[in-house]
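Quick check before the chapter quiz. The format below is the same one you will see on the exam, so make sure you can read both the input and the output lines.
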Amino acid sequence: MASKVMKLRLLSDMEERELLLDSVTIRHKADIASAARVLARVAKDRGMRVMMRHDISSQEPMADSEGRDLNSSEFGWTQDGNELWSHASHTFKSQIIRACRAESEPFWVNRDSFRTRWENQFLNEIELEDFEERTLLRAAIVVPLHMPFGQIAVAVFTSRDESRDDLSVEFAHFGPLLAELTRRFIAGYVSMMRDNPYLPPLNVLSARAVECLKWAAFGKTNNEISLILDCSPATIRYHIKTICEKLDSANRAQAIFRAGQLGYLGSLN
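Here is the expected output.
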């Protein structure tokens, strides 16, 4: 009997998950506000609130089809005279954003350390002593989303009880569901709100140019790359110069960094 009850409960949980995933799926711009509302309710039912950014390199807020800022209109970080708005503003300028560049899996963090499913040495290098002053939060569950061409989105969940600085229980119990719902929501949002191709034609590099840049990323000089690719150093200089122009980069190092953001160097090994 107990086994049957457990199976029924599992089925119910799976059905609820599927319903929630469908509810946060954005198929049209008109779905954005209602999907955000569902996500906010899921967080609230678990004693949490959420704030979100679809691109950590941009100051552009996430908005519904009417242009309303989702963080204030749906997620409750009200701007007009509400102190909570400063929380959101500070959070998106804090160590959390730096951590999202180094970690692609959900984690939770407070002033003591980052907690992830496995060790990440890059996170250990991020100083957290002033975490509370910079984020105006005691602790947060963070869901990064790494998308094509280097775009990174982030959702930050924090307890509605602002005194809580330990979210290990919430992370264990709710983390997987919150992460799945967040990723479904943000992926749909970016797909709907991206009016133009993310990679402009001027940024498209030829296969030969990418080959040159990959060897440059390994630290090879122009002369060395010319020997590897069996062409003249002048040809390599031409390719590097063209790459810098197309990627709007001031020098070789910046071009390599920018190409990595756009996904050109993803196959380095």
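If your answer matched, good. The longest helix spans residues 168-193.
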